[in-house]
Amino acid sequence: MARSKKKAVHEESAGLHRVVTTKTVLTMKKNGEKIAMLTGYDYLTARLLDQVGIDIVLVGDSVGNVVQGHETTLPVTVEDMIYHAKAVKKAVKNALIVVDMPFMSYQNSVDEAIRNCGRLMKEVGVGAVKLEGGEYIADIVRHLVRIGIPVMGHLGLTPQAINKFGTYEVRAQDKKEAAALVSDAMALEEAGVFAIVLEKIPAQLAKRVSNSLTIPTIGIGAGPNCDGQVLVVSDMLGLTEEFRPRFVRRYSELADVMRGAFRSYIDDVKGGRFPAKGESY
Ligand code: KIV
Asked: I need a surface site. Which of 9, 88, 132, 229 has the fewest CB within 10 A?
């Protein structure tokens, strides 16, 4: 795309949609306005998300699964997150950019958490970081928030703990785990997070947590009563064909569209129909 056209697209989207900050999402909860969040890992997708008015782009460590092809999110590094966040940052003018801090980049000590989260804030200029975990990371959250690094929490099915859980099944189905999740949510709010992702927990529990907090909850597989929703962009576009949990609504079948385009291209090249005269110099 020519440079001037690129600028025009940005200007158009900047005029249409508000700039979203951590304060905006708190106000949205107060006003009963639902928060729409999707993951984004690259410049072009992030630009489309921003153009249509997504509230939050999450540079998720799900990049490990859907971009890098790993079985889990555990191998993802801080360098990976910086690389993807930089591409997203270049495209986004209005949405709040939140970046997942990868496994073992924040759990070890307050110092390490500050150093790694600080890199995302300073080297990329994102709006906030997301950390998985409950009460046991509250102290780390408190330090980050105090020095000006906004934090989004993540409870329920926390994929970085998959080796502890042993399964991607629904979490907190029994009373004990449900009670622990409620007190984790309270501890995170008290420590200063501005929002909490609730992943794959019963809808009734998500409703209870959402009603107990003044900060917004953003659900994924957590029912309709969260203050916002998030999906992995590759899932909702139908690119992760074999991944079909009930909480993923497919808004497109992009894998079919892409295969169709690739097949047509191959046929055209093999049949000598591409490039045509008008596509040559
Ligand atoms: O990494 C990710 O994409 C996430 C979402 C599933 C919330 O954490």
From this structure: 9
Active site residue 79: no
Per-residue pLDDT tens for 108-151? 999 999 999 999 999 999 999 999 999 999 999 999 999 999 99
Q: Is residue 9 assigned to a domain? A: no
Name the pTM for this structure: 0.94
Amino acid of residue 36: A
Catalytic site residue from 199, 241, 242, 279: 199
Percentage of the residues of the chain whose pLDDT score is greater than 70: 95
Mutate to test the pocket of ligand 1, among 54, 56, 101, 199 (most ligand atoms within 8 A of CB): 199
At 241, is the secondary structure helix, strand, or coil? coil
Residue 62 Cβ inside 6 Å of ligand 1? The answer reads yes
Please state, in angstroms and rounded to a whole number, the distance separating the CA atoms of residues 141 and 139: 5
